[in-house]
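Suppose you are handed a protein chain with no further information: no name, no annotation, nothing but its sequence. What can you learn? This example shows the usual starting point.
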Amino acid sequence: MIDELDLALVDALRVDPRAPWSRLAGPLGVDPATLSRRWARLAAAGEAWVTCYPSTDRLGYGVTALVEVECQANRVAEVAARLARDPQTASIEVVTGGADLLLTVGATERSLLTRYVLDRVGTLPGVLRTRTSLVERTVREGSRWRDGALDTGQRAAIAGAPQSAAPGPGRTAAGAQIVADRSLLLALGQDGRMPYAELAERTGLPASTVRRRLAELRDSGRLVLRCDASPRLTGHPIHVLLWLDLPADRLEAAAAWFAALPQTRMCAVTLGAANLVAYLMVRQTEDVRRLEVELGRIAPGVRVRERQLTVRLVKLVGHLVDRDGRSCGYVPLDPWAARAD
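A reasonable first move is to predict its three-dimensional structure. Written in structure tokens, the prediction is:
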């Protein structure tokens, strides 16, 4: 049974997904053993999980794209299920609007992204057409979303000292290092709270090296840890993606406004039919209309190209999701996989 402590625990792990139970105990007002048991129960039931993925923005190389897929009406679920097993497709949603599926796809190079969309997605039986928008820059990252279960003091106590925002190495050095850390990233993708000893066993690296590399990757922002949860814990919010076309001189103001909204899960500048996308999590559809009115005041001339409502989540950052929104499996999120094809 879900209670307030479960909600607070999940939101605490959104602040710091690898925070030790001893650091969370004080802000949450319970002992570490209780938190450990609670998390083990939630994770085993698929109600909450911590995952990990590389940040394209911080790496300095690679590409992320949003791919809209239109399917034959009787083959949407089949296409989604087949693509969910692909390591290059991070997330899959069944959506309203002109497309049936929305994919988040990653690749190390644009040519590999093109090959995946044309030769894999485009050739699947049941796929009618695709439309691809490249993510030029992420303004607000999905891992920064909070459910509001904690107050400001609790969040500050959990976060501790701010992480350094030092840039990572240059493009070539970062690329070489991140590939070397591939096994670490894949292990953490399955369980972002995996103990250092188990990570050392999985990767073949000494535990001290694992600890140091993980700290370096997190501090540089090249590795993102994220806590997600089922609708039972998030309160069944409505997921809406707005595709926006803004005048060039209004783009930055609109992006900054979305980045500051508590309802924004993700916001990115894109290259495609729209130049800005905002992924909102709201309680009522009327909230979207209200936000659009406010946006019109901040960015006159904005045009909403499309509003896509998520009607079913199939895969979220590598984790397969059942019809109740619970994690029921994991496909390693591996943008390097295409190089071995």
